[in-house]
TrEMBL record:
One of its GO terms (molecular function) is dioxygenase activity. Keywords: 2Fe-2S, Dioxygenase, Iron, Iron-sulfur, Metal-binding, NAD, Oxidoreductase. Its cofactor is Fe cation. The keyword Mitochondrion does not apply. The keyword NAD applies. This is Aromatic ring-hydroxylating dioxygenase subunit alpha. Residues 50-157 form the Rieske domain. It comes from Amycolatopsis minnesotensis.
Length: 410
């Protein structure tokens, strides 16, 4: 359990910032120091919007629980399709109600003394509490709500009392993901990893494709290395192909608008071209599952949604893959990688799970190994912050600025 140091925020905005040279990787303490990690939980993770799950992971009559930084949220969806988010804390004496994970449920029953809540969070039953106990308690003993927003099939929560704005992210995500209708997709595979690296190491790795060519042979079959925001490499072939594919997207009514961390905000949404001949991120180039949602043609490129500090998703014509980071301590991050295909599709008939996951299971695992090696070196006394490439790693520098801003004390 992390104990939050009241001055933890100052270590980032003071000590770490003072030691930081813009355009370089961060000082070692930013990745390894327990007080910095405490600040990250308190000032970054518990103040911002966090990706929890795909909407499809919480259908009506189901729940999904997720713990992060000493907090825990339970998502539920009632029969009227309304999504709810509550603190995973019993209103009797505060027990944790549900373990992380998900499933079907009619009610939520506390394991301690069996207080029972509806999926809407209302207290339904509490035995042996004496006559008129609800009135004695002011009548309000439902689970306490957590801020929650759904954006075109992705669910985000915020534990802060006053969440930062979300409408811009919701609009940008809906603009791109709307036609893919991943809210009606279904999960076909989940992979959970415990990665021995700081969460920022994983974000930094995601924010550049400098490492792609030497490390991601499967990814590079379908993807250009270009397309990460701030990557300044020029490739006339890419530009030509991008222009051609944008015209195809327009003809299908798909948005081609790229939104990259506007005004330093937490989200990026972009539809990127796949290599000529590739309909999706697969090993063969061919679709590996039925078209998603309202799509009628396979040439849709690949939509990327990145939300700081804890997620990225790729949404192709035929499948979506979400990645969620859960920081555990300064040197440990849990990662959940979840694959979705069109709702109602049948394994063995419409798709083969191994084919759907082939590129992104392999690529993700390659990334975790890279991150662990990176973190091991950064943890060493031999580490000195090194220069970021002004050609390929600008998005890392932007992330650092975002992190410093988030880390400022109130
Ligand atoms: Fe939940 Fe007692 S703490 S029923
Ligand atoms: Fe990678």
């Amino acid at each position: 359990m992390t104990v939050v140091n009241a001055d933890a925020g100052d270590i980032v905005s003071g000590v770490v910032r003072e030691d930081h040279r813009p355009g370089y990787s961060l000082p070692r303490a930013a990745y390894t120091d327990a007080d910095v990690f405490a600040s990250d939980i308190e000032r970054v993770f518990l103040r911002t919007w966090l990706f929890v799950a795909a909407s499809a992971e919480v259908p009506a009559g189901a729940y999904a629980a997720w713990s992060v930084g000493g907090e825990s949220v339970v998502l539920t969806r009632t029969a009227d399709s309304v999504l709810h988010a509550h603190h995973n804390v019993c209103r009797h004496r505060g027990s944790r109600l549900l373990d992380d994970g998900g499933g079907r449920a009619r009610t939520i029953v506390c394991g301690y003394h069996s207080w029972t809540y509806g999926l809407d969070g209302a207290l339904r039953a509490a035995g042996d509490m004496g006559e008129g106990f609800r009135e004695r308690c002011g009548g309000e003993l439902g689970l306490r709500p957590v801020h929650v927003r759904e954006a075109a099939g992705l669910v985000f929560v915020c534990f802060a009392g006053q969440p930062p704005p979300f409408d811009g992210a919701a609009a940008a995500i809906a603009d791109q993901l709307g036609p893919h209708e991943i809210d009606s997709a279904e999960v076909i595979a989940r992979f959970r990893y415990r990665v021995a690296a700081n969460w920022k190491t994983l974000i930094e790795n995601n924010r550049e494709c400098y490492h792609c060519r030497p490390n991601h042979p499967e990814f590079c079959l379908s993807n250009y290395e270009l397309g990460v925001n701030g990557d300044g490499r020029i490739d006339p072939g890419y530009e030509e192909e991008f222009a051609r594919q944008r015209a195809e997207w327009r003809a299908q009514g798909l948005s081609e608008k790229q939104v990259s961390f506007p005004g330093g905000d937490f989200y990026r949404v972009a539809r990127l071209p796949l290599r000529d001949g590739f309909e999706t991120e697969s090993l063969t180039g061919r679709l590996v599952a039925p078209l998603l949602g309202r799509l009628t043609r396979p040439r849709t490129g690949s939509v990327r949604v990145v939300t700081l500090p804890n997620s990225w998703s790729h949404v192709n014509a035929d499948y979506a893959v979400t990645t969620r980071l859960t920081p555990v301590n300064a040197g440990t991050t849990d990662v959940d990688v979840t694959f979705l295909v069109r709702g109602g599709a049948t394994e063995g008939v419409d798709y083969d799970t191994d084919e759907v996951v082939a590129v992104w299971k392999e690529t993700s695992e390659q990334d975790w190994e890279l991150c662990e090696r990176n973190f091991a070196g950064v943890s060493s006394r031999g580490y000195l912050p090194g220069p970021l490439s002004p050609v390929t790693e600008n998005s890392i520098a932007d992330f650092h600025e975002w992190w410093f801003r988030q880390s400022e004390p109130d």
